[in-house]
Design brief:
By secondary structure, this protein is an alpha+beta fold. The chain folds into three domains: 13-126, Orthogonal Bundle (Butyryl-Coa Dehydrogenase, subunit A, domain 1), CATH 1.10.540.10; 132-240, Butyryl-CoA Dehydrogenase, subunit A, domain 2 (Beta Barrel); 243-386, Butyryl-CoA Dehydrogenase, subunit A, domain 3, CATH 1.20.140. It is 48% helix and 14% strand. The chain has helices spanning 18-35, 39-45, 51-58, 77-88, 93-99, 102-105, 107-112, 115-121, 123-126, 241-276, 289-317, 323-348, 358-369, 376-386, and strands at 132-135, 151-155, 158-169, 176-182, 191-197, 203-208, 219-230, 234-235. Strands 1-4-5-8 form a four-stranded mixed β-sheet. The chain has a four-stranded antiparallel β-sheet with strand order 2-3-7-6, with no helix packed on it. Helix 10 runs antiparallel to helix 13 (358-369). The longest helix is centred in the last third of the chain and has 36 residues, at 241-276. The model has no long low-confidence stretch (mean pLDDT 95). The structure holds flavin-adenine dinucleotide. The site of flavin-adenine dinucleotide has 20 residues, from strand 1, strand 3 and helix 14.
Amino acid sequence: MTFERGKSYDEVQEYFGPAHEALRRRVRAFVEKEIRPFVEDWEKEGEFPRELYGKAGRAGILGVGYPEAWGGSGGDLFSKIVCVEELMRCGSAGVVAGLGSLDIAIPPLLSAGTEEQKARFVTPVLRGERIAALGITEPGAGSHVAGISTTAVREAGCFRLNGGKVYITSGCRADQLTCAVRTGGEGYKGISLLLVESGTPGYSVSRKFEKLGWHASDTAEIFFDGSMVPAENLIGMEGQGFYLIMENFQSERLQLAVMANMTATLALEESLRFLRQGLLPSRSGSEPQWVRGRLADMATLAEASREFVYRVAARMDAGINQVKEISMAKNFASQVSEKVTSWALDIHGQRAVAGGHLLERLFRDSRILSIGGGTQEIMKEVIWKYL
Ligand SMILES: Cc1cc2nc3c(=O)[nH]c(=O)nc-3n(C[C@H](O)[C@H](O)[C@H](O)COP(=O)(O)OP(=O)(O)OC[C@H]3O[C@@H](n4cnc5c(N)ncnc54)[C@H](O)[C@@H]3O)c2cc1C
C-alpha cells in the first residue's frame, strides 16, 4: 500500500510569498518612521494623533485585505496578518487596536451593505479620512450579545435610538458606529445593525475609560438619547444583525490571535536581547539552567501557537468553516501570550516592572486579548458545541 500525501516534503507550502514579504517590509518601514518613536507619549496621552489614520490610509495600510473597488489595497487574509504582525512591532497593542477598529466595523458593511452605504461609509474609512468603530457591548450585555437593550423604533423614515454602549474601541472620536440595536422583540432575532453617525443629535460620548492595558487606544461609553437615524442606514435586513455580528467575530478572533502571538514573540525577543547584552547578573558566567529552560518553553509555545493560527487562517481563506478552530486558536494564543509575557518578566526581574518598559506594557496589553472578541469561557462554549 502506498500512502499519498497532498504534497511532497519539498513542496510544503509556505504561507507567505514574495508579495507578502514586500508588504511586510513596507509596513515595517512605516511603523519604524511613523509609530515606534512616539508610542511612549501616546500611551501616556491615552490616544494617538488622529492624523495617523490618514497617514496609514494614504500608505495603503488600512486598506489591506479590502477590495480595491471600495478603496482597499486588495490582498488575502495573510496580507492582513502581515499588517497586524508588523504593526504590533510598535510595541503597543493599543495603537494596533485603535487603528484596527475599522476591521471590526467595516466587514458587516461589506458583507450586507448597499452600494451607496459602501461608497459613503467604507471608502473614506479605508482612506483614513473617517474613523469607524463597532458598538455591540452594553453594561448588561457583553458576552450575552442577544441581551442588548438599546432600542431602535421606526418613526418617520428613521429609527429613534435610546440606550447606550460601553467599551467601544475608537469610540471617543469615531465618525461612525456599526451599532447593534433592538428593532424587534426579545432574543437574537430582534437585533439589527445600524450605521450611526456621531454627529447625530442625541449621540454623545459620556466617558473615556481608563484601562489596564491598550492605553493608546481610546475606549468610550456612548449614549443615544432619542437619536434619529435614517432608515437607509440599516445594514442588511431588519433582524439580521445577530448573524452579521457572529460572522464578524471570526475575523476579529483571528486578528486577536495574531496580536497575541506577536505579543509572545516580542516578549521572547526582548528576553533574548536582555541575555545577549549580559544584563542578567550571573555568578557562574552563563545563564542559569532555569532561564535557558524558560526561553526554550517560551519559544516552543510561541511557535506552536503561530503555526496553529496560520493553519486556521489558511483554511478560513479557503472558505472552510473554522468556527471551532478559530475559537481554539484565540484561546490558545492568548494563554500563550499571558504565559510568555509573565515568564519574560520573571527573567527580567525588577528591570522590567517600571512603567514604560516594553515588557510591562506587553504583560498588561496581553490580558485584554482574552476578553475582547469573546472571553475564554465563551470560546470554550463554542468549541464544546462542536465536539
Ligand atoms: C479594551 C476593550 C476594548 C473593547 N472594544 C470593544 C468594541 O470596540 N466594541 C464592542 O462592542 N465591545 C468592545 N469590548 C467589549 C468586549 O467585547 C466585552 O468585554 C466582552 O465581550 C466580554 O463581555 P463583558 O466584559 O461584559 O463580560 P461578561 O460577559 O459580563 O463576562 C464576565 C465573566 O463571565 C463569563 N461568562 C459570561 N457568560 C458566560 C457563559 N455563558 N458561560 C460561561 N462563562 C460566561 C465570562 O467569560 C467572564 O469571565 C471591549 C472590551 C475591552 C476590555
